[in-house]
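Q: what does this look like with tryptophan bound?
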Amino acid sequence: MKEVVVSGIRPTGKLHLGNFFGAFKNFLTLQEQYDSYFFIADYHSLTTHPTPGDLKGSVKRVLAEYIALGLDPEKCTIYLQSDVPQTAELYLFLNMNAYLGELERVTSFKEKARTQPNNINAGLLTYPVLMAADILLHRGVKVPVGKDQEQHLEMSRTFANRFNRLYNCDFFPEPQAVSLGDNLVKVPGLTDSGKMSKSAGEADTIYLNEEASVLNKKIMRAVTDSGPAEAGAPRSSAVQNLFDLMALVSSPETIEFFDNQHKAGGIRYGDFKKQLATDMELFIAPLREKIDAMLGNEKLLDEIAAFGAEKARKNAQETMRQVRDIIGFSNKY
Ligand code: ADP
Ligand code: TRP
């Protein structure tokens, strides 16, 4: 039997190049090797009280993007969290053994409580419990997450062990982070602000469905040095960023050509960026087409979501049958 991988995807905005190379590509590898469950964490997103329209729109977008980019419903189980209400039942059970003190100490909770003092709701406090329910529902053992989620994952282990100890069983495995360290790519942004991020603003980010003209403008406006570098001068961080982006989408010959120009002095950044914009458009165009086509195909999206929900629920029902049995609830009526 293949090991179970579980990962939640927050429905936040459009995917950018950083999300694609940094996180999404790993999903494509995982779906080949594991029994993987990828779900859209729409319960989690209620902590911020989205309107029904906004929630629907962002869930649809993320589903369309992940499918368009290559998550294959035949190879993995992709579903909406809210289509599997067993998640909420397990969340309730786990909450009975999650303690206020430990929840209040979670870094992400403390951060949220500081930045949004007017909305410190119980859902925020118990966010790690819901995340544990997501994972334990499928008895997941591997979870592909970044550094920011490690504390949450540690709590999933705590809740799994606590349940096992309380009921004197060995039911839930301890979920571990999948180490993505070796193939983690850090994609820089266009404004020399560090890594590409939605929060660094529109000019920093290249979205995967970026229109050709917008893409061209963004790249041509990217920061470089004021004049051509002198021969042998090291690359400035802004110029290094553009070389890093080029490494993702251009041919080795192209990269070598501009590298040589930079080393020899006299590189023309206008030409360099024009080339980057051309190669980026060649990379983005097919992705943009696939994403747009998927967004326009509501029927297919519905079918995929229904298919995934069915598979996920089946597994979840079996887990919950056993959990209810362990706890001492009747499964009879
Ligand atoms: P943003 O910073 O734009 O809000 P998110 O925090 O939503 O991005 O990132 C979602 C996932 O994409 C995370 O797993 C994160 O590690 C990855 N990711 C985001 N930006 C980058 C980047 N510039 N380079 C590599 N990975 C990234
Ligand atoms: N908390 C995760 C994030 O912010 C999303 C998430 C929810 C998740 N449930 C999960 C990730 C279960 C992995 C496993 O990115």
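Strands lie at 4-9, 35-40, 77-80, 142-143, 176-177. The pocket of adenosine-5'-diphosphate (ligand 1) is lined by residues 12, 18-19, 22-23, 146, 185-187, 195-199 (CB under 6 Å).
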